[in-house]
Amino acid sequence: MIVVVGGGLAGLHIARSLTNTGHTVHVFESRKTPGGRIHTDDERQYEAGPWRVARTHLRVIRLLSEMGIVLLPVSTPTPAYGEGPEPVPGLSIWDVSALQTRDPLKADKVDLSTSYADETHAASGSAPYATNTKEYYYAPEGFSRLPERLADGLDMHYDHRVVDVTKQGSKYAITISHREKGNTFSTFVVKCKTLFVCVPPSACKEWTIFREHARSTMNAVMEGQLHHIYAEDERFPRNHHALHPHSLLSQTISSQFEYSDYFQISYTGGRVANFWQHLKLQSPTTFFKLLKDELKRVMGFRLASNADIRSHHWPVGYHAWRTVPDFDLQKSVNLSIEPSPRLLPNVYIAGEAFSSHQAWMEGALETADLALERFHNPKPLRALRETDTTVDGCVVNVTKWMHVHPGGKGAISNYKGQDLSGLLSHIGHSTHAWAVAHSLKVSK
């Protein structure tokens, strides 16, 4: 039996592929429906999660076609998002802007010009939200049709949350909490030899297997927030998409759906996304008033006084790679698929978080395909040498580590030939230190 944790796009794609090749697969999903962050509000006709597909995202386009889901071009002209600076390994995108301009306010301006605040905190060399195209598509049926059709025929277990995974011999014991009714839960354990983890790090990093043997991978990325706020008004212009870097709205976007009167009165990221959430929780009246006032200020459009407004805040909306010395995007992606093949054999990770297309559905499918490739074509591990230093069972570049370690060369050279995971945990190193350890892996 193979277990897939997470009924989002990556988990469903993996489960469907394995089922089609004759494997027995069980998918455990904590929500009542499949799709993860994919969520179409069919009643109001808008996307509360991913709302478009880039022309360059061929995996998603191909899968949508296979599932019989029609795509149409987004008619709204895509505005020119702020262009980031040329990558400099070891710095964040913000760092590079600050280095070039010698002005932190100008670096902040570059960050806000993307309309996704805090996006430039990502490692230089990665590019959350970058697609290299201005051509996009939407699904008139809604993107939720994709996970629904992928899940059809699979052995899905909804309302089942994995709360821990431990290693017991050659198998993994998975502790699952099942919501039976209201506030009533039952707990049980299933065992398997092969495990695909297709949930964000925030949902699995405290599992025993990852806390003990994959902390470096779990800390290699950080979370980003998104906030879609929709308003209903049939008078709002069609074919509209504008950036507002000097407004808390960030972006205003008309509906792609032909018969929907809902439009995105605000689409924000990072600290601006959180601002709207904080304001909504503290003072709903101020929240609604400010949205209307800002729309009037930046567009001259007065929203109807009784307009319906819907807010969708995603605390874990997307992910970004942490900044580490000599960051290498493809190396980081490849190292994450099998977080610890020596200590956690047959455990694979897939999802947007550890991809080169962070913030997009394409990233989920990219890592899902890589995980399937590793499963079907496993490569033998080389024997460890006496001089190999490891973290989470993976060999690291000691020479480079000594160069970047703030405690000096001796703090590393004294432990050559040992696994340093326990020592790093005991000292209480930061998430950044663990991310650096992940980047220093050279062999599994």
How far do the termini sit from each other?
25 Å
CATH class of the domain at 2-52 and 141-221 and 321-376: Alpha Beta
Rg = 23 Å
> According to CATH, what is the topology of the domain at 2-52 and 141-221 and 321-376?
FAD/NAD(P)-binding domain
How many strands appear in the DSSP assignment? 21
Estimate the strand proportion. 15-25%
> How would a textbook summarize the main sheet?
5 strands, parallel
| Low-pLDDT ranges | none
CATH superfamily of the domain at 2-52 and 141-221 and 321-376, by name, is FAD/NAD(P)-binding domain
What's the helical proportion of residues?
25-40%
| CATH level-two architecture of the domain at 2-52 and 141-221 and 321-376 | 3-Layer(bba) Sandwich
Structural class: alpha+beta
Count helical runs: 16
User: How would the global form be characterised?
Assistant: globular
Average residue-wise pLDDT: 94
Strand order of the largest sheet: 8-2-1-12-18
